[in-house]
Every structure is written in C-alpha cells, then in structure tokens.
Amino acid sequence: MDNSIYIGMGADKANYETAAYEIVEDNLSYHKLDVNYDNSGITIVDESGTKHSVQTAGGLYNLMAREFQYDSGSAPSAQNIYTSSYAVVHQIDGVLDFHKQ
Asked: What counts of helices (H) and strands (E) characterise the chain?
C-alpha cells in the first residue's frame, strides 16, 4: 500500500491505496485498505471486509526496506542513485482479499 505505517508511530486510521488493481471499463481501479494503527498494533480491513492484524510474535513487523534505482544496470558500476524509496514489511494473520462482498 502507499505510505509506510509502523507500530509505535502514534495513532490514526485512514484508507490507503495499494499497487494491486483491476481494469474496470478500460480504467485502472486500484484496490484500497482501511488501516487503523496505534503504538501497540495495526489492523487492516480488506475490500472483502475481512479484518487482519499485524503479528508481533516472532519479530516479523516494522521491518524497514529501501529500494534504489541506479543510473546503470548494476550497483557497483553506478555513478548516481536515480531514485529511491522506503517500505515497511509486516506479517499479517491472513491473505488480503480484494473481492468486494
């Protein structure tokens, strides 16, 4: 989904767009998630209405990742970073379902 949400970054709830999409009448329709988070956890409701929770047992949450795109085909030969982005990875308790009920 767009934006990085971490356990421990405060509390809020919002609807976020994902990179998952379908084509509806020749237009891209991106799927969305309802996310509610606070300093102790994150819950996600997918488009089927299923509620998921980030699993904190085992430490598979708040895992920060970074992607770099270089000005060449390989990092060792690059002279510059063309663009970069951050992401966070969490293990949840199920599979997201984008089939609306």
From this structure: 0, 6
* Inter-residue contact 18 to 33 (CB < 8 Å): yes
Tell me the whole-structure pTM to 2 decimals: 0.83
Report yes or no on 66 lying in a domain: yes
* Residue 48: count of CB within 10 angstroms of its CB: 12
Per-residue confidence (pLDDT) for residue 5, from 0 to 100: 95
Cross-strand pairs, 69: 83
Q: Where are the beta strands (DSSP E) in 11-80?
A: 12-24, 27-37, 42-45, 51-53, 63-70
By CB neighbour count within 10 A (0-12 exposed, 13-18 middle, 19+ buried), where does 42 fall?
Answer: buried
- C-alpha to C-alpha distance for 10 and 20, rounded to whole angstroms: 27
Asked whether residue 53 is domain-assigned, the answer is: yes
Q: Within a domain: residue 80?
A: yes
